[in-house]
């Protein structure tokens, strides 16, 4: 087995307190060691995601026992194996879903949550896969039960989650309607495979959905907005429709009339990913390898990287994320 020389210290980004991007600091810290069933990854790139900003603001702490260093997805090279790991070897290039620690030069990952790099993608691009693809696959297809021939409404279509959901739903044979906040973002959604895109700043998405479906409504909605969207989503659903809530950019506490749930026999569900067990996440990883990785390998779908920043500019990356001016993914590079 090859031996890789691992330094004793590394650079990492840390939140010095709760607040805006100004609380992000770069520091030197000891390189972590993998435990049983884990690997140590030399991180080439890490994705920036909305939950990172929520954690920075003090609203989304990592699960007990996890490092407070932010970062939920990485790509790089395996440089050390924990006890009992036989599915990976030193030198393997992987992308991985992690519960924290991604904004660093080295990060510990659970071996079952490491996925191979699809051949057409660089390590930078692959680092933008795990958080979005685990989330979208599990919520759109497992919880939301989307099938070919159905119609799905995807809010935030130009985001990392949205751009992933549009592509996967399109290739699953669904009709895709997306919402986005500008004509440019709507065009981006259409190029990804959306059949229609609604500029929510200019049009009422409920009325547009009804017009696009001859008054029927959509079979599924993927929403990360919440607040006033909850009641409007129930209006936009067809009979037996499913609303899948994966985040709340607006308040999670709302006052709504739930009668449409009864009258249209609707399903209102949702989930979070970070605190789930390794076993549950591993099942998603296996489904991704079976159903989604062949599409990535064939170049039929891919992550879209909007901007890349060095680790030292994590503040600027967070500012861009919170501006919502991006199309697709925002990435950090470590220089490794």
UniProtKB/TrEMBL annotation:
Pfam families under this entry? Answer: ADH_N (PF08240), ADH_zinc_N (PF00107)
Keyword flag Oxidoreductase = yes
- Matching CDD domains, A to Z? p53_inducible_oxidoreductase (cd05276)
Give the record's keywords alphabetically.
Answer: NADP, Oxidoreductase
Q: Could you tell me which SUPFAM superfamilies the record lists for this protein?
A: GroES-like, NAD(P)-binding Rossmann-fold domains
Q: Which GO molecular function annotations are given, in alphabetical order?
A: NADPH binding; oxidoreductase activity, acting on NAD(P)H
Q: Where is the Enoyl reductase (ER) domain?
A: 19-332
Designated name of the protein: Quinone oxidoreductase putative PIG3
């Amino acid at each position: 087995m090859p031996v890789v020389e691992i330094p004793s210290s590394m650079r990492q980004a840390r939140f010095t307190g709760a607040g805006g991007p100004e609380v992000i600091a770069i520091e030197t810290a000891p390189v972590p060691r993998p435990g049983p069933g884990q690997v140590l990854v030399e991180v080439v790139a890490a994705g920036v995601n909305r939950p990172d900003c929520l954690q920075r603001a003090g609203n989304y702490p990592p699960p007990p026992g996890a490092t407070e260093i932010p970062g939920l997805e990485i790509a790089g090279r395996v440089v050390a194996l924990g006890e009992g790991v036989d599915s990976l070897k030193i030198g393997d290039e992987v992308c991985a879903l992690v519960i924290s620690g991604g904004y660093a030069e080295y990060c510990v990952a659970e071996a079952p949550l490491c996925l191979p790099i699809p051949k057409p993608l660089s390590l930078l691009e692959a680092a933008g896969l795990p958080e979005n693809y685990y989330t979208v696959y599990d919520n759109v297809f497992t919880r939301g039960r989307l099938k070919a021939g159905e119609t799905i409404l995807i809010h935030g279509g130009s985001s990392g989650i949205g751009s992933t959901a549009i592509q996967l739903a399109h290739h699953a044979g669904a009709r895709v309607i997306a919402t986005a906040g500008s004509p440019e973002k709507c065009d981006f959604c259409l190029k990804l495979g959306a059949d229609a895109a609604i500029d929510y700043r200019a049009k009422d998405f409920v009325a547009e959905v009804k017009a696009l479906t001859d008054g029927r409504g959509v079979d599924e909605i993927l929403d990360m907005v919440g607040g006033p969207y909850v009641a409007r989503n129930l209006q936009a659903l067809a009979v037996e429709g499913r609303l899948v809530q994966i985040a709340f950019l607006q308040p999670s506490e709302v006052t709504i009339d739930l009668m449409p749930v009864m009258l249209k026999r609707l399903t209102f569900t949702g989930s979070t990913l970070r605190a789930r067990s390794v076993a549950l996440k591993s099942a998603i990883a296996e489904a991704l390898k079976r159903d989604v990785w062949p599409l990535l390998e064939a170049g039929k779908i891919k992550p879209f990287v909007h901007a890349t920043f060095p680790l030292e500019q994590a503040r600027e990356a967070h500012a861009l994320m919170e501006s919502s001016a991006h199309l697709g993914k925002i990435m950090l590079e470590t220089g490794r």
